[in-house]
Amino acid sequence: MDRCDAGGQNERGEAMTVLVTGAAGRLGRPTCRALLDAGFQVRATDQRYARDAGGADFRIADLRDRLVAYTLLEGVDALVHLGNYPYLMPGIAPQSLYVENTAMNAHLFQAAHEMGVSRVVFASSIQAMSGDRETGKPERPSCLRYLPIDGDAPACPANLYAMSKVTAEGLLRYYTGRSATLAATALRFPLLVEAGSGWIIKRSRQKVWPATRIDEGLSYLCTNDAARLVVEVLRQQKPGYHQYLPAAAAPMISTPIPDLVREHFPGVPLRQPSEALRSLVDVSQIAREIGWEPREQLPIEEDQPAPVPA
Description:
about 300 residues
């Protein structure tokens, strides 16, 4: 397999061929389109067909089959692996979800290693480090070592889905340790929301959902920004293992940051004064190393007018 340069071409001067797993999913569809728009050759796969994959070479496959990984990665320069179960799902036992996610990841990463794939981008999750402290349980101690959080935050998984992501991050560290040329990046995505008209959710001026995992920093990311980050990682990433936490430029709630810190994060060390923070997530490392910054935000939900006395 030819190595890839920093501009997204292999040593033959051709556009990189990228395998995108989970291509029919919420992030997979815009990622395929963004890669094609950027000039990459895209091979897409999922267990269901996506009509809006932007003209990618689409193949139906089950990543739980070890041998499928080799067929999918034949002739591929880079792997964008989005194809896990996306959260603890009704109808599948947590231990089964962990086993299947881990099997899919091991199958693809091992095959990529054997076949000389130069770049791997993996959709990890903020749940790998956010614990299970909910806003409705303020008495529980925070899992965070510092604020604002970033991709280097220590792992703190609260369930077997999150543990499957931590395990995958460890696998990528293992494979980069065995290759001088592999560039592997785990993106600890927060809640992903789709941009455009018909927003499913909006930023609230005051409310936080009762079951919100508060140690996720009230973060989210628009799928177009996430797809654009994948493209830039493939273009810019240097060999070795990298781990980032991308997020929109402001939290899900528009309450002033100092008030959020006082209410939800007492005792968590601050790297900057709370008055200086625009967000509870620091994406400056991504900006320095990749040149990416978020562009989109959810609209702010307008306050309901107070009732007029009769």
